[in-house]
Amino acid sequence: MTATTPLSGLLPEAERFISQPAVPAAAAHHDGPWIPTHDPSTGREITQVAACSPQEVDAAVRAAHDAFTVSWGRMSPVARERVLHRLADLIEEHALELAQYDALESGKPVAFVQAIDIGLAVEQFRYYAGWPTKITGTVVPVADPSAHVYTTRRPYGVVAAITPWNFPLCQAAIKIAPALAAGNTVVLKPSELTSLSTLRLAELALEAGLPEGTLSVITGPGSGAGTALVTHALVPAISFTGSEAVGRHLASQAGAALKHISLELGGKNPNVIFADADIQAAASAAAATAFFYTGQVCFAGSRLLVQENVLDEVLQVVHDHAAALVVGPGLSADSTMGPLVSSAHRDKVRRYVDEAARAGADITTGGHDIGGELAGGFFFEPTVVLNPTDDSPVASEEVFGPVLVVQTFSDEDELLRRANATPYGLTAGLWTRDVGRAHALADRLEAGTVWVNTYGDFSASAPWGGAKASGLGRDCGPDGLNKYLETKSVWVAG
Q1: Residue 52 is among the residues annotated as catalytic for this protein
Q2: Which residue among the candidates 264, 381, 398, 446 is catalytic per the annotation?
Q3: Which residue from 382, 328, 319, 391 is spatially nearest to 355, judged by alpha carbons?
Q4: Cβ contacts of residue 94 below 8 Å, gap of 6+?
Q5: Which end of the chain is more exposed for a tag (fewer CB within 10 A), N or C?
Q6: Please, what is the Cα angle at 427 between 421 and 432, to 5 degrees?
Q7: Closest residue by Cα to residue 292 from 261, 315, 316, 269
Q8: Residue 258 falls within a domain, yes or no?
Q9: pTM for this structure?
Q10: Are the C-beta atoms of residues 246 and 222 closer than 8 Å to each other?
């Protein structure tokens, strides 16, 4: 592992974020309290975002309701398609700017954000731009020959969308694109830690031709702006990505009010390497997904289950990968792994590792904060924890940091028992040359997505979501559109 200095390789376009922080124009008229946002690479304050009041949330929801009933909700499917394509074009045109916002606030390497996050956001809008003209109903045969019965699929109205801090723009696109394609309007609350790219996206949406009120971004903590949004009487549908604890709370609120809700929550994802796999490819991918974005990813392969006779070979590849990572600020062009999002989160990750070591697990690499020139930021070493017990917190809970738990198994029965022994069920990975084994195990693993001889592939057209405590419903693909539509039956007497 090597480290960059705090501002080495800083992209010239990002200088203004460091030297001239400014309140985004979208919040210019807010006269209430403000929330500082920080660069986790240095600990410095970047700017401030509005802590929206219940009255401001109410205004945003009412504007969205008006847009649904008067403009966007009445716009032709062809016109909606054109606007969504234009928004995709604008995101592409502003890709570096948007990537720098996310890299600055989250600490993720800017080159990765531009290539991956922004690319996925564009893909979402392009994919769902093709759907408005293809939302159709059916003619239903019934017993009464004189009756003509058909169905239509209608948008709900105002959708409340709440996104996490780790994929700000990408998660916004995953929620906004299908909701708008279906004819809904959206009020979106990003995390107060990473709001800037979403605020900029709202400005680009107006430029693309979205009518006023069709997409509003409200900022602030979940306990304030978030609660006011999801409990608003004019919001019939909620889409949330974030922690299991918050998801359960929102589900109880939605249930009490009979609101529609979809949840994409956490994961403690098993990544399995059999002895017959391509060990170099499998172990390299396992390390990459564990330390990708400093492990702050819901689908991170944070539990590596290795067939016992190839453990040493796998560990060597994983350790080599960790040693080659260039740890540094998100805005450094050289960085391949950034900081954790906050000092409090770094403390939490460190506690998991320290507790595992005290309980007898072997910390084979990493396990410490990174100091020196990076001491001002929230950096933590890429870490491998070998053979903790199954019920230990580091092995059973979502650490959400650059911590890879490595355990062994002897046969398929032991593998399935250990892999499924978690409340979560988001993703899983399988590495084997035995195709029959891969299909059989993919069916028995309790996960919404199973990757075979790959890990982390993602497409706007493939359904995404989890089983068990990893959530309700699916994003992406036709399923991601259908959750923003309800079916109406129409009977016409002959």
Answers
A1: no
A2: 264
A3: 391
A4: 200, 204
A5: C
A6: 90
A7: 269
A8: yes
A9: 0.94
A10: yes
